[in-house]
Amino acid sequence: MAKSGGDGKQERDEISLLAEEHVQLSVKGSLVTPSGKPTLISIVWTEKLYNPESFRAQMKSIWNTKKKFEIQMAGQNLFLIEFDSEEDLELILEGRPWLFRKSIILFNRISQPMARGQIRLTSSPYWIRIGSCPPEVGKKDLLHAIGVTFGGLSDQKLMKISVVLK
Known about the structure:
The chain has 166 residues and is an alpha+beta fold. The chain is built from four helices and ten strands, in the order αββαββαββββαββ.
């Protein structure tokens, strides 16, 4: 069998990556690594298949942020959302729940590298409006009972409470 030409040494080509490609590589390993900007990790809570580009496009069209944000894949149905502004990140968290194709989007802040297997996105706050109630029922007791029923009380204003669904 004939050998190919050359002196037996293997040449190595260097590969240079664009910044965007480098970010993508950093999340493909076992760690999800935020860039240092205000960042959310999110998942669309669904078993249905969907196009991640469609998710990106819809979120960019409905979130009225003051500055830019980027959505990157961090795994199957797992996204890193990096904001240029902490204020915009807070706006998105306060506006929860968010839906994509009738499925809830779960969020958590991420500020340090995290193993993909350690990411737990299992709950989301909801505001529940409570109508008038009988005077003999104490407002605080009622709010506490509702909060405990739904998984926890996170905030209360007038006759609305924010509960965490689990």
